[in-house]
TrEMBL record:
It comes from Amycolatopsis marina. One of its GO terms (molecular function) is cyclic-guanylate-specific phosphodiesterase activity. Keywords: Membrane, Transmembrane, Transmembrane helix. The chain holds residues 591 to 868 of 882 of the full protein. The keyword Membrane applies. Residues 23-276 form the EAL domain. This is Diguanylate cyclase/phosphodiesterase. The keyword Ligase does not apply.
Amino acid sequence: RATRGGEEVRGYVPSMGQIFMRRFQLVTQFRQSLEDGQVSVHYQPKVSLPGRQVQGVEALVRWQHPEFGKLDPDEFVPAVEAAGLIGALTEFVLEQSLRRVRKWLDEGLRISAAVNLSVRNLADADFPAKVVAALNRFDVPAKLLTFELTESGVMADPQRALPILRELHELGIVLAVDDFGTGYSSLAYLRQLPVDQVKIDKSFVLGMGTDLGDLAVVRSIVELGHSLGLTVVAEGVEEDVARDQLEAMGCDVAQGYLISRPLSEERLEAWLQARTTR
Ligand code: C2E
Ligand code: CA
Ligand code: CA
Ligand code: CA
């Protein structure tokens, strides 16, 4: 692939025109790709600490493009957002996730699903009604659904976002602040948001083994979160040591490659099976 988060892959530097053309192609093809089954949802398990029971999964979108191959959400989600198509993407991910939660309920498992929201979802006054309709359609209780939102997303237009967040929260949906620690106003605004969870950004969790500053940030987020009565989730847990340190700090939930990479629905089923029969 040509670019990844702005860094160039050696040997091939695409021109601005090529980047623009590819983005254009992606957004014009997106709706059809949903129908053609090119877009799918992968799920990454989250486990409780210290018990290590599977507590939920995060839904992460994937696009198997016929020409460009497997695309990262970092490449196409911003383009889809900018083109005003995020509603369709979120509804797709939400439906897939609730269908999966329903199957687990039928098997006697209570596993929640976390769906990432975009700032544009929070500008759609009809969004809560769509969510209620989806919960009803799959007969899933609201507390088994989590929405992850970034602070910058909420703060882009708080007048619009806050009433929608309150409505979602009153329905019983769990709200989590994603990538926590990377914003500028984190601490001041956290108290004003109707949230239940903070997710410590993976950059701090990845760095905590070698960087005392990162370790201090992680520790203070755990303390702050708990003092506000929030559940604290750490993402980017790749090493045993990190998990052990997080556990010792009292962090509630861990997510990361150490536990599992994001998996297709089929592979997740096998993973869950292997865990419960061990
Ligand atoms: P995010 O919400 O912060 O998701 C976590 C990202 O960290 C995922 O990348 C996941 O694969 C990756 N990750 C998980 N564990 C580890 C680990 O131990 N180490 C490292 N280095 N990385 C880990 P992914 O799937 O590429 O998603 C990237 C971003 O794309 C997400 O960041 C989210 O902002 C966005 N995204 C993904 N799916 C959706 C979606 O359905 N809707 C929206 N609006 N955004 C989405
Ligand atoms: Ca997330
Ligand atoms: Ca995150
Ligand atoms: Ca992110």
